[in-house]
Amino acid sequence: MGKDKITVVGAGNVGATTAYIAATRRLGEIVLLDIVKGLPDGKALDMAEASPIYLSQQDIVGTMDWSATAGSDVVIITSGVPRKPGMSRDDLLATNARIVRDVSQRVAEYSPNAFVIVVCNPLDAMVHVAAKVTGFPTHRVMGMAGALDSARFSYFLAAELGVSVEDVTCVLMGGHGDDMVPLPRFTSVSGIPITQLLKSDRIDALIDRARKGGIEIVNLLGYSAYYAPAAGAVKMAEAILRDTKNIICCCAYCDRQYDAGGYFVGVPAVLGKAGVERIIELNLNDSEKKQFSVSLGHVKELVTQVDRLL
Q1: What is the model's pTM?
Q2: Judging by DSSP bridges, how do beta strands 5-9 and 74-77 pair with one another?
Q3: What are the tens digits of pLDDT across the range 211-229?
Q4: Tell me, what DSSP letter sits at residue 30?
Q5: Among this protein's residues, is 128 annotated catalytic?
Q6: Domains of the chain: which residue ranges?
Q7: Domain 146-309 CATH class label
Q8: Which of the four CATH numbers 3.40.718.10, 3.40.50.720, 3.40.50.300, 3.40.50.2000 does domain 5-143 have?
Q9: Per-residue pLDDT tens digits for 92-130
Q10: Candidates 128, 139, 176, 298; catalytic one
Q11: Judging by DSSP bridges, how do beta strands 115-118 and 29-33 pair with one another?
Q12: Residue 63 carries which DSSP code?
C-alpha cells in the first residue's frame, strides 16, 4: 500500500506552513503547487532540507504542474487573495471565487477521488464553490474555519484562566466571520463548564475577541494569519487520512441538520476515512438558535452572490 498523497494549492504563507506542518506530522507525500515560478520549488526544497533535523516527512515536491498532483488523497486549497487592513472577508468574494473555481476544476480533473479542504475566504462561500465546481459528494468537501476559530477561543480562555490549552474543549458554530457562534454552554475546561469558571462579562469579551481574531492579526501584521489556519487544515487532513474520528468544528454540508436547508456552514462534525462522517446535532437553546440563524443567513447571502459570479 502506497503513501497517502496530499496536495496543497498555494505556496504563500498559509500554504507553505500547511505543507510544513503536514511534513512534521508525516502524513505522506506532499505536493506544493503554485503559479509563481520557483516559489513552490524553493519552499519545498527548504522543507525537505529541514527533514534531517526535525525528522519530518522528506517526500515534498514543489511544482507549477498540475499533473504532479494526480491521484491526491487530500487537496487543501489555500490559494486566494489574503485580507489586508480595512478589508472584510466578504471583500474577497469575487476574486477568490474565480480562483477557487479554476482550482476546483483542476482538482476534479486530476484527483477525482480526493477529499477537499478549503481554507481561503470568505470561507463558507468558497466551500460552496469548490463543491459545486468539482461535483464531489458533499461529505468529501469541507472548510477549515471552526478548527481555527475554536483554537483562538480556546487559547484566549486558557490564557485568561491560567490553565493548559490541552484542557480546554471549545465548540463553535455558524459562518466564519464576525457572526460566528461560540457556545459557552458546550465549552469546558477538563469537563468543567466555563460558565462555572468565568463571569458572563469576561466570557462575552473573549467571544468578541475570538470573533475578531482574524482582523486583530491583520491589523498587526498587515496581512492574514497563517500558523493557526495551517494547523487547523492539517488537523482536519490528519483526521481523514488516519481515520481518527475526531470531532472537529468545521464548515460542512448541512441539510436537515440544524434546519440549514442545504448549505455549508460551521458545525461540530466527526471526521474520518469517509470525510465528514457525521454532523453532531446539539440541542440549542432559543438564543443559540437565533445566533446560528443570523450567521446562516449571512452565509446564504454570500452563496447567492457567488452563484451569480460562476
Answers
A1: 0.95
A2: parallel
A3: 999 999 999 999 899 999 9
A4: E
A5: no
A6: 5-143, 146-309
A7: alpha beta
A8: 3.40.50.720
A9: 888 999 999 999 999 999 999 999 999 999 999 999 999
A10: 176
A11: unpaired
A12: E
